[in-house]
Structures are given as C-alpha cells and as structure tokens.
Design brief:
- There is one protein chain.
- The protein has about 200 residues and is α+β, with helices and mostly antiparallel strands.
- The chain has two domains: about 130 residues, Ribosomal Protein S5, domain 2; about 60 residues, Alpha-Beta Plaits.
- The protein is about 30% helix and about 40% strand.
- Helix 2 runs parallel beside helix 3.
Length: about 200
C-alpha cells in the first residue's frame, strides 16, 4: 500500500503542562473530524477554565491539508496559534485540535517567550499521545432493504470499511468510510446487490 493511502492522527485525548515565570500553559490535544467537534471542545474548556487569560488553539482536519485554523486569542499576533500549528505539522498529524489554556503569572514573557511556551507545550502534548495511522477513507451513505443487511455488511467487513452511523429498520441507512484504495471495488460490489443505493457524502 502506498503512503498516500494513510494519514497520521491521534485517537485519544491528552493533556500536558508547561510553566514559565509563573505563567501556566495547559495543552489539550483532541481527535476531531469536523470543525463542530472542535467548537464543542473549545466550549467545554472555556467552561472548565473560565479564569484563564487565554484559550489559544490550532487544528487541522482532513487529508488534503487545506482545512486548518489558528487563534492567538488576544496574545500578540503569531505568538500562539502559528507555533502550535507548526508542531502539529512537524508530526504530520491531521484530524487533531490542540487548545492551550494559559493562566497568566504576572510576568510578561515577550513574543519570543510566548512562541517558545506555546510551541513547547504543544510539542509535549503530542509526545504523550500515541500517534496512529489510519486509512484515508471516502464517506458514503448506503440505503437498503433490511433483507440485504448481511450482504451489505459482508462487503463492508471484507473491504475494511468503517461504519460511522447505522439506522436499522425496515429500510436501513449506513454511513460508512470506504478506504480510498478499495473504493471502486466496494462500489462495484454494492451495485451488484439488489435495491442498494449508495451516495457520496460531501
């Protein structure tokens, strides 16, 4: 299998801490798939740490490298989010968000000091969380008659597809991640079955 059929990410949250001249930096790394996942994480952390001076972040989603965001949340421009994203990219991970909660300790660190602190704490949190390799997948929804259940599941299982959501009634809906490398084969096999509709999820 070629390298481009996989991507690196994390599949569990992690926390790391860094202190500099009284300021405390707490980095929270979380696996995410959408910007909404990230917003929920940020909302929870702001609730959990209402007295923190800053909640800076960087995240990257998807395997094309185009979907990312950074925020300095009131720190000098470029002193927090960018160095954090730099650490994420140096590990070549995606579908990850790192949020750093800063408690101000009374001494100003200056821009170089801040860059160092945000970079260091992000690097630490990425060291404590295991990095995993996952297949690049295309998401499809499959709509079928309940009687086709075993056939559909057999194809998904044999081709290593991920079942993301499933509704099982008289008519069934499954959202699945199909490995890019097996896409043609899976779609062909599903098309061979009677009354099975597949649709790409954008």
């Amino acid at each position: 299998m070629s390298e481009s059929e996989f991507y690196k990410t994390i599949d569990q949250p992690a926390v790391a801490e860094y202190k500099d001249r009284g300021s405390k930096f707490l980095a929270f790394a979380n696996p995410i798939v959408t910007a909404d996942d990230f917003k929920k994480q940020l909302f929870l952390l702001k609730k959990e740490h209402p007295k923190a001076a800053h909640h800076c972040f960087a995240y990257r989603i998807g395997t094309d490298g185009n979907s990312f965001r950074v925020s300095d949340d009131g720190e000098p421009a470029g002193s927090a989010g960018k160095p954090m994203l730099g650490q994420i990219d140096s590990k070549e991970v995606t579908n990850i968000a790192v949020i750093v909660v800063r408690y101000f300790g009374g001494s100003l660190l200056g821009v170089p000091g801040l860059i160092n602190a945000y970079k260091t704490v992000t690097s630490l949190v990425l060291q404590v969380t295991p990095i995993v390799q996952k297949q690049i997948e295309e998401t499809y929804s499959i709509h079928f008659d309940y009687t086709q259940m075993n056939d559909v599941m057999m194809v998904l299982k044999q081709c290593n597809c991920t079942v993301i959501t499933q509704e099982m009634q008289l008519f069934c809906n499954i959202t699945t991640g199909i490995p890019k490398s097996r896409l043609t084969e899976v779609l062909y096999r599903l098309k061979e079955l009677q009354n099975v509709d597949t649709k790409k999820v954008v």
